[in-house]
Amino acid sequence: MDSTVNSEESYDLGYEPSSSSVDQNDQSPTETPGFSIQSVDSFPYCRTNSEASGFSEATDENSSSETASPLIWPAMKSPRQAVLTRIGMMQNKVGDQDPLDLELEMMKERFSKLLLGEDMSGSGKGVCTAVTISNSITNLYASVFGQHLKLQPLHPEKRLMWKREMNCLLSVCDYIVELIPASQNLQDGTPVEVMTSGPRSDIYINLPALRKLDALLLEILESFEETEFWYAEQGSMSEKSTRSGSFRRVVQPQRAEEKWWLPVPCVPHGGLSEKARKHLRHKRDCANQIHKAAMAINSSVLTEMEIPDTYIASLPKSGRASVGDAIYRYMYTADKFSPEYLLDCLNLSTEHEALELADKVEASMYTWRRKACLSNSKSSWVMVKDLMSDTDRSDKNHVLAERAGCLLFCLKQRYPELSQTTLDTSKIQYNRDVGQAILESYSRVLEGLAFNIVAWIEDVVYVDKTMRNQDS
């Protein structure tokens, strides 16, 4: 196949045309394991909950998410939109062993798995496309970042795998559009209103933001290529250190039990230089802001998802019985409700206790909301007048629902690595909206990566402070 065809096909896949993009000696694997196996300490839909990707492949070094963003919506056609058409045209080229042809065949197989809902047997037992794409993004994240536990650049092959396969998965958003009214003039100058297609508003706003956060997180990892600190296995001695590698810090309350498999950061005698400490503080602040932004996007997407009927049917009849008498009395009798004070009094010691409380508070909140709606089931005009007045806000169920929402929000802020609640898991499981599934899973994995980076930086800062105090 001549160079002209190779250049055209590589551009359709999102590659920049170059000689390396058609390397005949490419030794990248052509098949990967099935779907992921969750780690021992993970919860369903946790931030990092698997170790192998069912949608991963080694990538060419020229693939990049910046070269062809799917959320750029000009009048011209997106380069990746030709990929699906080209895949269909390549069906008869079985004997051609060109690397790009093999690439197209692998992409065709991946999209077939997505369309069949992870069930290649054809028995119709697969899950819906939205859940399949959500699982694929989660598994890809775990495959790329699952074993990355240090402040250091991501391996080049892993980085290229992440970019290329995320581009492939996110390309689905190119076809999720909505009709927007627009004005158009006919040849005689008569203005008419027509409906034009454009990107759906939630995807148009959130997906570019998530892509930017993704790039910033990889940039933070790349900034630690040359560092004054290094890592040693837990309890071992580093080749550069004369001290025991046992400075592992309990960074957050939910890390009460030490995770022995995590590598331990080590610093030289006297600690890090002022320049290195300033760099750590700056990157920690950046990662913190990214974590908050990803968490906000994830929360907004989950809020927009429909509540499954199965969850509504499982709600308790009494919110008081769900949260318990002690919490109910404080929420109902306190003149000035303080969720932070209530959490301090509860003294939660494990992530399991925090997640259990979150499930109970969330169930009670929806129980009280439902009762508040039932109590206001009046005629339409009376209901409108009541909603516009302040009388409804004094309703007991309305007040309790608002306070339960505040308590749930503070609980998630205090335990940012908390697993998905029962409601969130149900929403993801029964969701049928592909766009929402992509935004939710993408924001969730970025939230987890940002949290991990902050924790790794906090570890190094703590070790540096400990070393300087010991030498002083």
TrEMBL record:
Domain PRONE, first and last residues per copy: 94-472
Pfam families: PRONE (PF03759)
Keywords annotated in UniProt: Guanine-nucleotide releasing factor
Chain intervals for the UniProt region annotation (Disordered): 1-72
Biased composition annotated in UniProt, kind: Polar residues: 17-53
Any one GO molecular-function label of the UniProt entry: guanyl-nucleotide exchange factor activity
Record-linked InterPro entries: PRONE_dom, RopGEF
PANTHER family: ROP GUANINE NUCLEOTIDE EXCHANGE FACTOR 1, ROP GUANINE NUCLEOTIDE EXCHANGE FACTOR 2-RELATED
Name assigned to this protein: PRONE domain-containing protein
Species of origin: Ilex paraguariensis
